[in-house]
Design a protein that fits this description.
The chain is α/β, with parallel strands linked by helices and 460 residues long. Helix content is 45%, strand content 13%. The chain has a 6-stranded parallel sheet, with helices on both faces. A 6-stranded parallel sheet has the order 11-10-9-12-13-14, sandwiched between helices. Strands 7-8 form a two-stranded parallel sheet. Strand 13, helix 18 and strand 14 form a beta-alpha-beta unit. Helix 12 packs across helix 13.
């Protein structure tokens, strides 16, 4: 069996950085180099100040501190890292296509193909190539074709090793995974990767499948989780008109051992880099095989999620006497979930966009997201000119400053710190009536209503 001494990971983003950091931590005898063409990102990974790592994840700084400089390295010299590696992880971005066939649904594989061509050009000896990015089914086939047809007689073994990380708990998930999934055709290549994970993951949790099952399992896992969120959000709207309480319904349903309680928390909607992208990819694959009923079924999960965000924004407008024009609305939270600075597909972006169409004045506070990122998210929508976004949206670094003189508060991220604020002080500083729209069902209704807030939560 091939002895793995050096690993290269192409892509220093949300998956590549944390995953390789933990693999390096648990395999001190293997040299791991994470490479990226983004010099600014690599500089941040190498910064002596660990609070400046490009990704915020609980415990990541400690893992990097332990392994960096020992057997974990971050670099921009991609060719050198490819040449020296025994095993290469591809962990580059696979965004939803914004052009051509499959626009708005299919995964854009241009970065994957560029990686494959670069590996094929540089490699002088046999390599194991591992798909870590989320990919459509049968991408490995295309990857192997490119590698085999553009290389100089080098043998490549392609494996699929999808990530199942939840942002905010990525390090805990890596340290104690439910399962590690490895798809492939070459048993020696599979065993080489199994041994790397087996240095800390029990063997019974490391599953081997064929390539296609591995690739599809990632999409299906995220589709099932997102489906549960959209299901309980659909029920939340029914609860509001019937007098039921969605938390009570979710608890009763979740106590059924066949269903379980996870992902039954009603909210303003799911976000993040995976759920929407993977479901749209699944929809596109189904349609490409003329499985329209299957595609329609999964597409409804996305439709429901979009509806929930629109419904929440409309509730704010209707409650505030059908106009938010010129009104100061404080947003608590911008990241798509707590304990991460990732804002991709965050509900806050779309709720804000809806309110900005009505000329609402939004002041945002998030403990981990920068003003630059918030404006970038809004500008990317193309709904209005960047100047208008900066005129209507203000970003502050003090929550009490965001809430001062606000007509309403919208809770968009479930940061635990929000529960500890001095809500009596906040109430005094707000315009009256003081509205709170809790999109994450985070705050204590009885406490806020006792203080005199007009409190609205999803599903109640």
């Amino acid at each position: 069996m091939k002895q793995i001494r050096k690993i290269t990971c192409i892509g220093a983003g949300y998956v590549g950085g944390p995953t390789m950091s933990v693999i390096a931590q648990k395999n001190p005898d293997i040299q791991i180099t994470v490479v990226d063409v983004n010099q600014e990102r690599i500089a941040a990974w190498n910064d002596e100040d660990l609070s400046k790592l490009p990704i915020y994840e609980k415990g990541l700084d400690e893992v990097v501190a332990e392994a960096r400089g020992r057997n974990l390295f971050f670099d921009t010299d991609v060719d050198k890292a490819i040449d020296e590696a025994d095993m290469i992880f591809i962990s580059v971005n696979t965004p939803t296509k914004t052009y051509g066939k499959g626009k708005g649904q299919a995964a854009d594989l241009k970065f994957i193909e560029l990686c494959a061509r670069q590996i094929a050009t540089v490699a002088k000896d046999d390599k194991i190539v591992v798909e870590k990015s989320t990919l459509p089914v049968r991408t490995a086939e295309a990857l192997k074709s490119i590698l085999d047809n553009t290389s100089n007689g080098v043998n490549f073994h392609v494996l699929s090793n999808p990530e199942f990380l939840a942002e905010g708990t990525a390090i805990a998930d890596l340290h104690n995974p439910d399962r590690v999934l490895i798809g492939g055709e070459n048993t020696e290549a599979i065993e080489a990767l199994v041994n790397i994970y087996a240095s800390w993951v029990p063997r019974e949790r490391i599953l081997s499948t064929n390539l296609w099952s591995s690739e599809l399992s990632k999409l299906v896992a995220n589709a099932f989780l997102a489906q549960r969120v959209s299901s309980i959000n659909a029920v939340s709207e029914l609860c509001e008109v019937t007098g039921a309480n969605v938390d009570e319904v979710a608890k009763a349903v979740g106590m059924d051992s066949r269903i379980g309680p996870k992902f039954l928390k009603a909210s303003v909607g799911f976000g993040g880099s995976c759920f929407q992208k993977d479901i749209l990819n699944l929809v596109y694959i189904a349609r490409s095989y003329k499985l329209d009923a299957v595609a329609d079924y999964w597409e409804q999960v996305i439709i429901m999620n979009d509806h929930q965000k629109t419904r929440f924004a409309e509730r704010i407008i209707q409650t505030m006497y059908n106009t938010v024009n010129g009104k100061h609305i404080a947003f608590l939270g911008w990241s798509f979930k707590k304990d991460t600075n990732d804002t991709r597909e965050s509900a806050a972006i779309y709720v804000a966009d809806h309110l900005l169409d009505e000329e609402g004045q939004i002041v945002v506070y998030d403990p981990k997201v920068s003003a630059e990122q918030i404006y970038k998210d809004l500008d990317a929508l193309g709904t209005r000119a960047p100047e208008a976004n900066r005129r209507l949206v203000k970003v502050v670094d003090d929550p009490y400053r965001a809430l001062d003189q606000a007509h309403a508060i919208a809770v968009l991220t479930e940061w635990d710190a929000f529960k500890t604020y001095d809500w009596a002080k906040i109430k005094e500083a707000m315009k009256k009536p003081a509205f709170v729209f809790d999109g994450r069902k985070l705050l204590d209704r009885s406490q806020l209503e006792t203080l005199g807030f007009k409190y609205y939560a999803i599903g109640e």
